[in-house]
Amino acid sequence: MGGNRAKSVFVNCPFDRRYRKLFDALVFTITFCGFDVRSALEESNSADVRLLKILRLLKESKHSIHDISRVELDPGTRLPRFNMPLELGAAIGLRHADAAQSDHSLLILDAKAYRYQTFVSDLSGVDIKEHDNKPKRLITAVRDFLNPFVDGHVPSPSVIYQSCQLFEKTLPVLASEQQQTVAELTYVDRLRHLAAFLAINK
User: What residues contact residue 176 under an 8 Å CB cut-off, 6+ apart?
Assistant: First the structure.
């Protein structure tokens, strides 16, 4: 689940149910393009301080993808979530403060173009990609971001999207073969099934 920094992509995005289809498309595209997804979800170690874990994963990754689209107030607390902007700031800081991270590349995503200028104006002038909460548009942005770092040909976004849809349809069968249900799958379980799927469907 990592080890090769050049092929590691740290993912900073919402993990809630509303974002689930986008998250699954994001993980699928990174893996399809031949990269390793690095995420705070990959480990469940109570000894880890979360922010220190994030910094470690960022240092172990040459690339990172940051979705800052979750700007709505939490229905329960009526407060916004600041984790995504915080982790984006950490990535930018590492890139500029640590010589070993100066080659770190970032993709910043939002649901709507240019609205970031209102809630995080310090990013003005930065190229942020819009996905409009649509998995296919997110797949296009991620595929195009990673394409220059791939040796060889990368299929079109439409091909990756179709493959992603096929994986979701096939996943219940893959899970059943391992005496699992899709609802019970952990993040790590899904990654294992994804690797098995791509081994014969790519």
Answer: none
Residue 114 Ramachandran class (φ > 0 left, ψ -120 to 50 alpha, else beta): left
State if pTM tops 0.85.
yes
Residue ranges of E strands in 56-119: 63-67, 105-110
Please state, in angstroms and rounded to a whole number, the distance separating the CA atoms of residues 114 and 36. Answer: 30
Per-residue pLDDT tens for 2-18?
Answer: 679 999 999 999 998 99
* Contact by Cβ (8 Å): 61, 6: no
| CA–CA dist 84, 18 (Å, integer) | 15
**Confidence band (pLDDT; 50, 70, 90) for 130?**
very high
Which domains occur in the chain, in start order? 5-151 (3.40.50.10140)
DSSP 27-58: HHHHHHTT-EEE-GGG---TTS-HHHHHHHHH
